[in-house]
Design a protein that fits this description.
With 236 residues, this protein is of the alpha+beta class. Helices cover 48% and strands 13% of the residues. The chain has a two-stranded antiparallel ribbon with strand order 1-4. A two-stranded parallel ribbon has the order 2-5. One of its GO terms (biological process) is DNA integration.
Length: 236
């Protein structure tokens, strides 16, 4: 009986010593796996600028071990992305992710819930709308507000083209005499008919993501201002 008791105590002591060693390692591993790609790139940038791992750790609010591990992976693989298998497996395959992104490109004004309902029959597992948004972000698609523009007739486009051609030969002194004015209208009504679209960054002026509409008199405040080469008007 005494031998069994001693054996049990010996096993418990070994497990306790192992737990004391594994606990900080698990904490470091957890912090490392929770780093986003932006944070990893920021860490690599600071260390390439000559910062020490301890200084980067204080700046990032992480441990020194996490900084060194991120730097070692960068030196070894020249990449700050996560290793395969270092996070939970995705519920969708790469082909299904491409199908989700393509559905958003075909219908850019559809919500994530609508895209979820559209692609759900073709997916192998149920996917939430949050995962749909995550896949779209990974596909470099963001949710942006529509650009609202006035509808232009062919006559408007012709006059704009003629205006550009006439002023195409102006010198710098001529351009310094131009005054630019603009006004911003703040709607005070309860509904502004906000519509969002899925598009890539830099495609704001694409007419495919613009809403052409005529303005109508509603309650609001108009702010006007003008600037020139060496002057600026007060806001009115």
């Amino acid at each position: 009986m005494k031998q069994v008791t001693k054996a049990c105590l010996s096993v418990l002591n070994r497990l306790e010593r192992k737990a004391k060693v594994d606990t900080p390692l698990r904490s470091f591993r957890r912090q490392y796996e929770h780093l986003s790609q932006f944070e990893r790139g920021k860490i690599i940038g600071m260390m390439e600028a000559g910062w020490s791992a301890r200084r980067v750790a204080r700046q990032s609010g992480r441990s020194d071990c996490v900084m060194r591990r991120c730097w070692d992976q960068w030196i070894r693989e020249m990449s700050f992305t996560r290793r395969p298998g270092s996070k939970r497996p995705q519920q969708t395959s790469r082909r299904e992710d491409h199908h989700i992104v393509r559905s958003a490109c075909v219908q850019p004004n559809a919500s994530s819930v609508a895209i979820q309902a559209q692609v759900a029959p073709s997916l192998g597992a149920p996917v939430s709308s949050r995962n749909i948004r995550r896949r779209l972000v990974e596909g470099h698609l963001g949710s942006w507000r529509l650009l609202r523009v006035l509808p232009l007739t062919p006559s408007h486009r012709r006059l704009r083209l003629e205006l550009c051609r006439v002023r195409g030969t102006w010198t710098a002194a001529d351009r310094n005499q131009i005054e630019f004015s603009d006004e911003s209208r703040f709607n005070l009504s309860s509904d502004d008919n906000r519509v969002r679209v899925w598009r890539h960054r830099g495609e704001r002026l694409n007419l495919a993501f613009a809403l052409q509409q005529h303005t109508s008199p509603t309650a609001g405040v108009m702010v006007w201002g003008a600037i020139a080469y060496n002057m600026r008007s007060p806001l009115v």
